[in-house]
């Protein structure tokens, strides 16, 4: 039997790579620095509790594969992404780093092409020099966003279905907007941490 632990996550700005600073600035301008700092404390608490819950599952990490929202590589390149993001302060990647150190294996989870397309749409929106151009870029992003998310979800599910072997457990760290479950192979038992 194959199992998948489905973990809905809260992204932090450190998870967003080159978009990090722009996103942080935008959020602070919308909600204010005090509210932003309060949210950061809540997010840190979320990750601390999530780490305890995942470690409490007592997974056989030698037979566990890690699937990560936004991770298009595995092996040496994938681990470089994990280590870099963890060093920059990503709680998500720090947890993955701990799991890998105990024997888990990361798997290239996302389509690089779809991630690049989304990043380019977002960068165009954030880097537009005029308000008019920014609004046009925002409309382009909004028109593509829903289908892009659906395509990413289908791709992630296919990666899990094709790489998770019998008697292995996968752990999927996925943003709350995603809905991968309907596309997962039917012979994979899903342990949804939200519904536990």
Q: Briefly, what is this?
A:
With 196 residues, the chain is an alpha/beta fold. The protein has one domain (2-195). It has 6 helices and 5 strands, in the order βααβααβααββ.
Set out the fold topology.
Layout lengths: L1 E8 L10 H12 L1 H24 L7 E5 L6 H13 L3 H11 L3 E3 L4 H16 L3 H33 L5 E7 L12 E5 L4
Parallel strand pairs: 1-4, 1-5, 2-3, 2-4
Helix pairs in contact: 1-2, 3-4, 5-6
Account of the 3D structure:
The structure is a single chain. This protein has one domain (2-195). Helix content is 56%, strand content 14%. Helix 5 (112-127) packs antiparallel against helix 6. It has six helices and five strands, in the order βααβααβααββ. It has helices at 20-31, 33-56, 75-87, 91-101, 112-127, 131-163; strands spanning 2-9, 64-68, 105-107, 169-175, 188-192. The protein is of the alpha/beta class. It has a five-stranded parallel β-sheet with strand order 3-2-4-1-5, with helices on both faces. 23% of the residues are buried.
